[in-house]
Amino acid sequence: MQSENRLIADFVKLATGAAGTFAGMTREARDSAREKLRESLGGLDFVSRDEFEAVKAMAARAREEAERLGARVAALEAERAAAPGGASDGGPGGGPAPAAD
Q: Which stretch of DSSP H or E encloses residue 22?
């Protein structure tokens, strides 16, 4: 009877070892696939979410500043046009504005 128990014990050891080996192979294959994917995607020009959000915020600030500056230019042009001799003043030379071609 003990020989049957020994045979079963050996079979259980074999099955346990095979299961551990299979689990290790699965982990190794998964890690290898991830590494290959990282290598292949590494050459592409992807950015991280943090970098994207930072550039998005910079663009929003630049848009806001451009709008403020546009409004300021418009106000200065209106102020200059309203000044005595404003729009007909050709600039620093004091003569008429040059003709546009």
A: helix 2-42
